[in-house]
Each structure stands twice: as C-alpha cells, then as structure tokens.
What does this fold into?
Amino acid sequence: MTQKRKATASKLSLASRVLAERRAIQARLAALDLDRPPRNSEAMGGDNTPTTELMEAVQESVANDIALASREVLLVRLRALNEAEKKIREGTYGRCEACGRPIPPARLAAMPEATLCVPCAERIASVVPPR
It folds into this structure.
C-alpha cells in the first residue's frame, strides 16, 4: 500500500473514531437526561427522623451535583468532537493549531478531539495553571 493510501485509510479510521465517540457521548447525555424516578419517602427505609431526612436530602443534592458535573464534562467533549468533525470536512483535521505540524496518529487515536501536538500541549499546560 502506498503512503498516500495509508494516510487516507488512517484518516478515515480516525474520522470513524470521532463519529463513534460522538455517538457514545450523545447516548451518555441522553441517559443522564432521563428523568429520575420521583423520590418516594415511604419506600425508603429508616426511621424518618429529621436527621435521616436531612441525610437523604444531602445525598440527593450530591447525586444531582455529580450528574450536572458529568453532563458538563460530556458537553465540553461533545463540542470538541463536533469541532474535530468540522475539521475533517475542511481537510484540516490532524494538524496542530499552534505550530501547524501533523498531530501523531497515536495521539489522535487516544484523543480524537486533540487540537495540539504533544510539545505544544505541554508548552501551553506549563503556562496555563490547571483549574
């Protein structure tokens, strides 16, 4: 197989991966968006003391916070995958946004939404403190 065919096959494989990742995230978001069953205090065990009710409220609040945080992470990744799909259509997928060099296929296989090569990502990470 020629180099050009290998490169084309590799890009098609990576494009398929982007689409598969996007579908998986959309399915996870749909699962998070399903309404949870209403809280039924009669079905819950316990003695219904104020402390028990408070603990149940705290647990429910924490579960909601985790669901919201998970949803936000998935939405950010979905936006990045949508951007990767746009780059595939434009023919610019797999190029580092900072230096313009090709992003290694192994990096794109691990992280299909990658927009930076490893050296540029490390350089930016060392300048920008993590949140």
